[in-house]
Structure formats: C-alpha cells, structure tokens
From TrEMBL:
Adenylyltransferase that mediates the addition of adenosine 5'-monophosphate (AMP) to specific residues of target proteins. Homodimer. Gene3D superfamilies: Fido-like domain. Keywords: ATP-binding, Nucleotide-binding, Nucleotidyltransferase, Transferase. It comes from Marilutibacter chinensis. Residues 130-281 form the Fido domain. Its EC number is 2.7.7.108. It catalyses: L-threonyl-[protein] + ATP = 3-O-(5'-adenylyl)-L-threonyl-[protein] + diphosphate; L-tyrosyl-[protein] + ATP = O-(5'-adenylyl)-L-tyrosyl-[protein] + diphosphate. InterPro entries: Fic/DOC_N, Fido, Fido-like_dom_sf, Fido_containing, SoFic-like. Pfam families: Fic (PF02661), Fic_N (PF13784). It is an enzyme of class 2 (transferase). It comes from the Bacteria. This is Protein adenylyltransferase.
Amino acid sequence: MSPQVASARAGRYIRQPTGYSAFLPAALPPDPPVALVGELPSLLSQADRALGRLDGSVLTLPNPDLFVFMYVRKEAVLSSQIEGTQSSLQDLLAAEADLFDESMPRDVDEVVNYVRAMKHGLARLDELPVSVRLIREIHAELMQGVRGGRLQPGELRRSQNWIGPAGCTLATASFVPPPHEEVPQALGDLERFLHRDDGLPLLVKIALAHVQFETIHPFLDGNGRVGRLLITFLLTECGVLHKPVLYLSHYFRRHRQAYYDHLQAVRDRGEWEAWLEFFLRGVIEVAGEAAETARRIQLLREGHRMAITERLGRAAGNGHRVLESLFDRPIVTVADVKGMTGTTYAAANNLVAKLVELGILMEMTGYARNRRFRYEPYVRLFTDDVPAEGAA
C-alpha cells in the first residue's frame, strides 16, 4: 500500500478557513479493506474463544446479575479515571449507600452518572438498536448535572472541539475532529455501518466502530466514556455476551499511551491492522481476567455459605439471607440487616457482629453510631488486579 493511500485510508485533514486543519473521517469499512493476515486470524480466534469462556463462566453463577452489578461499577470507575476523575470503587459504593464524608472526591457524581448511563443503555437495547438516538440518550444520562454538564448533554456539538494537553489551542492541538456541520453525516454513516451485513467479523466491526466514534468526537465532553460504553452495548446487542461483562477500560487505562497512539496512527497513517491487534489482545486479556473473577466469586460464595452454616447455628438462615443480599448491596447498616431478616435490632446487631468475626463484613466508618459495614472480600475481588486464568 502506497504512503498516499495509507494516509487517506481513514480520512483526510481539511484546512479550515481560519487556518487550522480538521480531520474528516472516511466512511467505514476502510478502503483498501482490512487485511486479516499475520497474527490477526489467530488473535481473532483467541478472542472469540475467550468471550465464549467468559459468557459460560458468568452464566454458571447462581445469580449472574450480581456479578454484573459490580462489574458495571468497576467499569464506571476505570473509564472515568481515564478522563481524570479521582474517585475509587469504594467512593462509588459509599456514594450509592449515601455515605458521604469530606474526603470523598467531588467527581464521584460523574461515576454515579456513568452507572446510570450504562443501565439506561442496556435497558433501552430491548427496544432500540445501537444508534445515534441511543448514543445521544446515553450521553444525556452521563453528563447531567456534572462537570461538563453545561456542555449540551445529549446534543451533538455545534462548535469545533479539539484534543490535546491542557492549555492547547486549535493550532497546537494533538488532534482536531471534523467540523461540527460534518458530525450528523459522519454519525449516520457509522450507524449504517453498524447494521450493515458486510461479512466482517463482529469483533473487527466493533473495533473499527470504536475508533470511528472517537474520531468523530460528536460531543463537547464525554466522548471517551460514551465510546467505551459503545463496545459493551454492541457485544450485548449482538448476543456475543448474554450479560454485559466485558469492559476494556481496564486494558486501555493500563496501556493508556499506546491506546491514544493507536487511535492517532489510524487517522494519520491508516494503521487499522495495528489497532485491531491491540484491541483483540485487550479482549483476550480482559475476558480472561473477568472469567477468573467469576470463578473466584463462586469460590468466595461457597466458602462463606459453608462458614455461616457451620458457625452461626440457628442464625444461619438469616446469615445466608444477608450474604446473598451483599452481592447486590455490599455496604449495609444494622438497620438494613434488621429489615432483611425481620428480626429485632439487637438480633440484627448480633448477626452483624458474627459476620464481622467470620471476616465477611468489615466496619468501615469508625463511628460508634450509624456504622456501615462492607462485604470486603467481595469488593476486593474488583479492586485488586485479577490475573487471567493461567497467567503468572
């Protein structure tokens, strides 16, 4: 492929009347077509198998939705951290449990919004395909009332934006997306590509679509987070995964500079194949980690059920009831446990104390009153890096 053809393969830079150059993406699929040669066929096969194993691992869990509950929150934290937020998974869980303190990062609302946007998008997939309309709805949920919320939530941008280090201008930006008047057409082309039966392997199609969305950069803020959500929605919509449990933000964050470099290499030099290799390696790695987490959740649940049965005597039934609820609500109070079990406050307090002794719950506030307890071993599965099965 000649340098001239390669450089125009993803689109071209167009000089604007005010002097800067903006990138106008070519419609997908790439021309010349993606060459699935070299390592790509093997990586594609490995990625497909890894997704199949992940799907099977999650579906064997007693309640797969409880796994989804925490995985969505982990993704919300990691994807938001790529954009500069400081909030952790513990901050998010505390915020959702209405446990606020002065040390909590102010940007935790952005992560809460991410969870809401994810839930909204997944619910809407039952009645609406992945489309410009759905993307706008997700963006509105993501940006409502937070930093950047004044920048037209759910509305396509009506001015030029750019990407680069803090303080850069249009003239010094690392990348300038297409002018705003080109955005509706570019997004329409992307939507048509997503639903066209063109014989491309699904993972290839999703990888191409992610780059294209980030290149169009249709909103004034939140493009990175929406673009990463798009990967999950497409995998779920197409039935590759029965539950939305593949989130590449962990991989993109771990290899952040390489991620940005690959996106730019596609635009500048048409290096789609190198991006596909990077993307598929991420799918393989993250799917393996998620499958291993599912296995550890199963072992954790079985171990704690056995401990409760053996150690809590007549309170074991209520102990099991509380344990199952912790997978969906990992931070609780004694009053919460009282409500779950229908016992007296004293009995609930005694049960919580026994769960603390078993290492299932951990007191997290340090208060004498209004104490909160976290299902620490479970939360830790999502905050520690979990190597893929078979990895060192």
